[in-house]
Amino acid sequence: MGHHGGSRRWVAWAGLVVVGGGVVVAAVNRPGEPVAAGPIVVSRSGCGNGWAAPRPGPQTLQVRNDSAVTLEVELIDPATGAVYGELEGVGAGTTRAMPVNLADGAYAVRCAPDDGTPFVGPAVKVSGGAKRPGPAVVPVTNADLLEPLKKYHAYVTDGLATLAAQTAQLARAVHSGDRASAQRAWLTAHLTYERLGAAYDAFGDADGELNGTTAGLPGGAADPGFTGFHRLENGLWHNEDLAALEPVATRIDAAVNQLRADFADAQIDQNDLPLRAHEIAENTLQFELTGRTDYGSHTTFATALANVTGTRAVLDVLRPLLASRFTGLPGLDAWLDRTERDLRAAGSTALTALDRTRREKIDADVAELTERLAPIAAIAEPRRVS
């Protein structure tokens, strides 16, 4: 999955609102939506000054940072710490909009200076509106993510061990001069690599070497900077002399073994894991299902299926954190099953050979899957609460 790279945040934060069942989603100010009178003032000495007698319902709070440092500002339930709205990086002297939907209950503002300890302002009560539809998102801490990161590191470590054995077999197959055998070995190894999609940021430069495309290379497929699985794919499926491909296969095997050694001590960034599930699906839609990464093998749907497996691996380790925080999880699981089923049905059919109706159905599956995965980045992002 890594040939695509990924932004470190899936959306520029305008704030968070809680919608049915407590799901957190990004929000923007809607035309005609009421704006709260007067700014809520945050600073080092006070968090939430000027906010009194808030009314229920959808509204946009104006938050002004009167301190000399950048603050992260959250609207929380003071009893549980559950987050109902969030603004990241509110600069000194600036005012930012926080869209919220307030049901009955207590709220407080939590301020986290970039260089200090978070603190919570006074609680205010909202009444006369709707009952809260469900729990808001209780913050995930760095400590909460330790076990998922440990499990995910083990998953990738096991996958790299499998991959190393497969790239050694791939090099042998290319050396043997048997093109069909080399093609089979290529697909086996490449799909194993694609299942490790969530770790690609941790792979750094190794990913470009192993799974890069011709994008940005002046020489295209003939460019010396074109290496790795797709370079070998291009040669194997376009009748390039196998002897000339031996150095390419040898280099892939060496790069995998180096990556395996490097990853043993690598740390996966705690912000990365919650982002990955969404990014894998997004990249599948953008690169695989457009045919941009097919260099002759026509294995698009098998690759997309491997990406779904990679998405499941991320979800599996995050599931203990998501179960109580993300009411959309059962629907997401059902949609994963549906996407997987449709990809399996497409099998080894080339992308261009699949009839339009089935191709559109798969595109719609992955597009919807991408949308359903999007909230996970916000829900499982580690937050400082003390």
Which key terms come to mind for this protein?
386 residues; single chain; alpha+beta; A middle domain of Talin 1; elongated; 11 helices; Immunoglobulin-like
Q: What do these coordinates show?
A:
The relative contact order is 0.14. The protein has two domains: 125 residues, Immunoglobulin-like, CATH 2.60.40; 238 residues, M75 peptidase, HXXE motif (A middle domain of Talin 1), CATH 1.20.1420. α1 packs antiparallel against α6 and α7 packs antiparallel against α8. It is built from eleven helices and eleven strands. Strands 6, 7, 9, 10 and 11 form a five-stranded antiparallel β-sheet that branches. It is an alpha+beta fold. It is elongated. About 8% of the residues have low confidence.
Task: Tell me briefly what this model is.
Helix content is 45%, strand content 15%. The protein is of the alpha+beta class and 386 residues long.
Which CATH class of the largest domain applies here? Mainly Alpha
* Largest beta-sheet characterization: 5 strands, antiparallel
Count of helical segments? 11
CATH superfamily of the largest domain: M75 peptidase, HXXE motif
- C-alpha end-to-end distance: 36 Å
Total DSSP E strands? 11
CATH third-level topology of the largest domain: A middle domain of Talin 1
Strand content: 15-25%
**Which residues sit in consecutive blocks of at least 5 with pLDDT less than 50?**
4-33
Tell me the helix content: 40-55%
CATH architecture classification name of the largest domain:
Up-down Bundle
The averaged pLDDT comes out at 86
Secondary structure category: alpha+beta
